Amino acid sequence: MKSQINVVVLAAGLGTRMKSKRAKVLHRAGGLSLIEHVVAASSAIAPADHVTVVVGHQADQVRALLAPSGVRFVEQREQKGTGHALLACRESLAEPSLVKSGFVVVLYGDCPLLAPETLAELVRRQTSGKAAATLITTRLDDPTGYGRIILGEHGEVRAIVEQKAATREQLAIPIINSGIYCFQADLLWRHLLEIRPDNPAHEYYLTDIVEILNRAGHSVAAMEVENPTELLGINTRVELAEVDRIFRERKVRELMLAGVTIEKPETVTIDAGVRIGADSIVEPFAQILGDTTIGEESRIGACAILRDSTLAAKVEIAPFTHIVDSKIETGAHIGPYARLRGGARIGSNARIGNFVELKNTRFGAGAKANHLAYLGDAEIGENTNIGAGTITCNYDGANKHPTRIGKDTFVGSNSTLVAPLDIGDASYIGAGSVITDPVPAEALALGRARQVIKEGWAAKRKKKKK
Ligand code: UD1
Ligand code: CA
User: Fold this and answer.
1) Which of 176, 207, 231 is the last residue of a domain?
2) For this structure, is 154 an active site residue?
3) I need a labelling partner for 215 at 20 to 30 A (CA). Which of 100, 326, 384, 426 fits?
């Protein structure tokens, strides 16, 4: 029978050193909040209903954020330390049926770079060995702030000493506690109650469990990892920025190795879930965020921002363009300085130029809106040309209305299209028109005052003034 593994993620603390009103685990790095990264890593070793998140500060927000993942929650009302936080789970996890052959993995919610493979290796070591617990350690050039590991003669862990309680000699130890542990469930729950808040901070330190287990005649093993990067815990905003940079670096590296050109990669922000096809080019300072997919041989211009959007192959996004919740077909050219939002759909080889905004609009294949237009709640047919300055008046102050423009139509510059409105295929709208009534296919619609010429008017005016 496979041993049962329960994961507990501690996420109740405020994170005083962040100097923030927001709970630390809600701060973001690499496009996700810290706690989302940790919960994602835990899925390598346990299904979501075996993951318990201990919440406290801003518990409602943390719950709301993680609820879709299916994890469980336990509340720690007062934050009296990491040992106290784990104790909050005792009732729900210490059922005899779970405990017998089970293991408990403890993770801290402020350690977001942890790799799933490392967690899986920790569990493999603990479940195949005899120790009461195994914990992940590493060596740091600057171990300041972390708990130090006191090793015994055979490499076993004798104790963890927190920074605040350590002697000078102990502070010189470079081996640190990552805060990632795997315990034999029965021993953990039996001895956890023995932790006392007898330290300067009057907190219940989970790290004291190591000495307690040793005293009871059990051993604790260390799993030292060579690359300390993935164990970085975040306590301050300086560390938050550093971890964010590491996430970004990982992502652009992965994309470059997969055939994407990224110019000045240190300036580019690409979220972990983004997919980009080979031979695409990303220019400096572009931001590609959320659930975005880009096909092959596309180009994302400098300073463009794309979020939750899908681009086919050979799409060109010129600089400073802003695209959210939109879909763009092959060969389309968007920008510079264009804005697409609210479910805009751009057909293949269409062109959207500078200072054109599209909201909830289907823009047909080969159609063009090259300058200065607003198209909202509209459907525009294939190969139609939208002149500069065209506005769909989709809002009457209370409700939104649709505009439908057929294919091969020519909308003259500065047209005002008052919705709801239907404009037929292959029709023409004269420049400067205000169009309020339907336009049949192949018709010419003019909705403007006729021009008046008054010959010699200027001279007459001059005379009058004398
Ligand atoms: C902790 C470890 C330290 C280790 C370091 C690794 C202890 C006593 N110390 O120190 O040995 O080197 O992590 O990053 O465990 N939390 C709660 N409830 C509480 C207190 C904390 O849920 O009452 C949560 C926090 O939200 C956070 C995590 O536990 O996600 C760690 O707490 P933190 O205060 O950051 O511990 P460190 O001082 O970093
Ligand atoms: Ca920490």
Assistant:
1) 231
2) no
3) 100
